[in-house]
Design brief:
The chain has helices at residues 2-92, 94-101, 106-112, 120-128. The chain is mainly α. It has one domain (10-128).
Length: 142
């Protein structure tokens, strides 16, 4: 009987040891998964804030683009009105019609044909190339 009791006690201790080992192993797995989950949540929160920032930026860009389109349309409309007004004036006044039909002086044409400038450095480079307008004639009566 003692022997059976000792065998039973050994089996119970073995079962308890095995359960303790499984519990320790499961606890370690849970801790590892919690750490991974925490890092994934932090990464997800970071990505979410980036997406919110991009969404705000997209909305702002869309709003500004619509404002620019409206401004361009207003400018186009004003230009069309100005051109119509010039045509009306040319039809009304013979002197103005002759003046509008004459060619611009060569210096003015050259000034109007400057290249497109993109930034301050390009403008300074264009200025430094020379092409200065010759000084006008000064009359002695002034």
């Amino acid at each position: 009987m003692m022997r059976a009791l000792a065998v039973m006690l050994a089996l119970v201790l073995t079962a308890l040891g095995w359960q303790s080992w499984q519990l320790n192993n499961a606890s370690h797995i849970i801790e590892t998964q919690e750490a991974a989950l925490k890092s994934k949540n932090q990464a997800l929160a970071k990505k979410n804030s980036q997406l919110i920032g991009l969404s705000i930026l997209t909305e702002t860009n869309s709003r500004e683009q619509m404002r620019l389109y409206a401004a361009a349309e207003d400018t186009r409309s004003l230009l069309h009105q100005r051109q119509n007004r010039i045509e009306e004036l040319k039809r009304e006044n013979e002197d103005l019609r002759r003046w509008a039909d004459t060619l611009l002086p060569a210096d003015v044409v050259r000034l109007r044909e400057r290249p497109a400038v993109a930034g301050g450095a390009a403008y300074r480079e264009w200025l430094s190339k020379g092409d200065a307008v010759p000084p006008g004639k000064v009359s002695a009566s002034q």
